[in-house]
Design goal:
Rossmann fold, disordered N terminus, 284 residues, 7 helices, binds S-adenosylmethionine, alpha/beta, 10 strands, single chain, seven-stranded mixed sheet
Length: 284
């Protein structure tokens, strides 16, 4: 196995693990990521909690807010809608949805992330149901939701994208919308660095080999899965959806904050996030 240049890593790699590119299947990815998010949830919420807010709906490090984007539809139409948030983390987006009068359910794989959701809710008038589960096996009946959403939740971490999309399709009602954001595929060709060193292509955009951090015994402790733009479109269609829009948020002048490899410098030159707006295709 060829050593992977850690300067291209999407994370600060833990001292006792190494970064590489190798296969990682559904089970290994889920196990590794549950552990990683449980171990790192505290630090993640300390580092990003203020930016995310307790009840804001932010689509990614650019800071695009659902209030302005309206990708789930006009806020006034959200009232009374059943919404599933996948990979909800501390459920900030779900609390924003609840404040609009929607009925969100916040689902996440990580117990510790959901404990942060509970911590925020304990001090808030806005509470949403929290569900600990894997996005690949959604514990809901067919046709339970009008809308589904995911702001960088689950999809970047899952080996079998189509399986998740089919699950979301199953639990949505006919015509239901699923909007999800992920790292923009072009980012995988560049080192994950916020400065000038992150501006030179260092890997093939076409290399879909998962990014894996592993321990001394070769056990994955963190996994991310890369898809090209074309793969994303094909996955959405194979999952039973129509792609309505693909939003590439531009870096706004007000946002001077860096988030890992996302920064004003890089954000002004190349996209950092891709948001796929999909609707359940009920023509078949
Ligand atoms: C980057 S966070 C996004 C959460 C929130 N939107 C935010 O911006 O903080 C990714 C979340 O996806 C969750 N996740 C990863 N793999 C998952 C899976 N297979 N099923 C459900 N959630 C998953 C993680 O536990 C984590 O809370």
């Amino acid at each position: 196995m060829e050593a992977y240049d850690p300067s291209s890593s999407p994370n600060t790699v833990d001292e006792d693990s190494t970064a590489t590119r190798r296969d990682a299947d559904t089970t290994e990815s889920a196990r590794a990521n549950r552990g990683w998010w449980d171990r790192n949830a505290d630090e993640y919420q300390i580092e990003h909690g203020t930016f995310l807010g307790d009840d804001r709906f932010v689509w990614g490090p650019e800071g695009l807010d659902e209030v302005e984007a309206e990708l789930l539809g006009p806020p006034e139409d959200l009232a009374g809608k059943d919404v599933l948030e996948i990979g909800a983390g501390a459920a900030q987006c779900s609390r924003w949805l609840a404040a609009q009068g929607a009925r969100p359910v916040a689902l996440d794989l990580s117990h510790r992330q959901l404990q942060h959701a509970q911590r925020i809710q304990d001090g808030s008038a806005i509470r949403v149901p929290l569900v600990e589960a894997d996005a690949g096996v959604l514990p809901f009946r067919d046709g339970s939701f009008d809308l589904a959403c995911s702001a960088y939740g689950a999809l970047p971490f899952i080996a079998d994208q189509v399986r998740v999309l089919r699950e979301v399709h199953r639990v949505l009602r006919p015509g239901g919308r699923f909007v999800f954001s992920v790292t923009h595929p072009i980012r995988w060709a560049f080192p994950d660095e916020p400065g000038p060193e992150g501006l030179t292509v260092s890997a093939s955009y076409f290399d879909r080999t998962p990014y894996v951090e592993q321990d001394d015994e070769g056990r994955a402790v963190y996994v991310e899965h890369h898809r090209t733009i074309g793969d994303r479109v094909r996955d959405v269609v194979a999952g039973g959806f129509r792609l309505v829009d693909l939003v590439e948020p531009e870096w706004p002048a007000w946002n001077t904050q860096e988030w890992g490899g996302w920064s004003p410098l890089r954000g002004n030159l190349i996209p950092g996030s891709a948001i796929l707006v999909c609707e359940r295709d009920d023509r078949a």
